């Protein structure tokens, strides 16, 4: 009876549920569980192309990535989300509270809409690779921190794969409490729990893929400069006000 009523009532949608963990391999086959380095992108390019991916001429990268950044800004500009060019790449920062439920590991209804919009733009600008990285606040147990952050990143990858983003474009990592972007106080901890998606152009010429990465390194500077750039996002007022109550995140995955 309830199902029948829902099928007739406008706006009665079934909330998104992440597929059971035992089915994740169906969505993540083709994903690389490592850092998205320039050599890794060069090595994966033939696999990406065999899966239907297309590549860019190096000369077209700046305009293509600028258009992609604009589309992401138009579709994703919400509290808790930040988008920024870092060299020739685009960094999308999703604070956990902006897209995941407070008391579970599932995506919130708003998060479902955010990720649907993200998948739509990524499918429109498909000549790109992406690294999906999970981060958290300080954990006493670093193994738990790594498991917790990898779980977040994998859930995003499963969602995107289920919305037609080919997994051969993806790298997935859980970085634990590395690279905090805010202090480890009550507010800062919730900002540090986040997923970052770094998007890079898939370039036709292998040597130019590496050159593009080297130019990014030159522009973004060393790791300390990168941390400063990302950390500055938390100072720009775009994360919104965190919930008044401290969310309960549950135990990290086994």
Number of strands: 5
Q: What proportion strand?
A: 5-15%
Q: Which secondary-structure class do the elements indicate?
A: alpha+beta
So, CATH architecture? 2-Layer Sandwich
Report the CATH C-level class.
Alpha Beta
Helix content: 40-55%
Mean pLDDT: 79
Largest sheet: 5 strands, mixed
Rg = 18 Å
Order of helices and strands: HHHHEEHHEHEHEHH
CATH topology: 60s Ribosomal Protein L30, Chain: A
The CATH superfamily title: OmpA-like domain
- Low-confidence parts: 1-10, 217-254
> Span between N and C termini?
38 Å
Supply the number of structural domains.
Answer: 1
How would the global form be characterised? Answer: globular
Number of contiguous helices: 10
Task: Provide the fold topology.
Blueprint: H1 2-8, H2 24-28, H3 38-50, H4 61-76, E1 81-86, E2 89-95, H5 96-99, H6 109-124, E3 128-135, H7 142-162, E4 170-174, H8 186-192, E5 194-201, H9 206-220, H10 223-233
Parallel strand pairs: 3-4
Antiparallel strand pairs: 1-2, 2-5, 3-5
What does this structure look like?
The protein is 45% helix and 13% strand. The protein has 254 residues and is α+β, with helices and mostly antiparallel strands. Helix 7 links the parallel strand 3 and strand 4 (170-174). The longest helix is centred in the middle third of the chain and has 21 residues, at 142-162. It is globular.
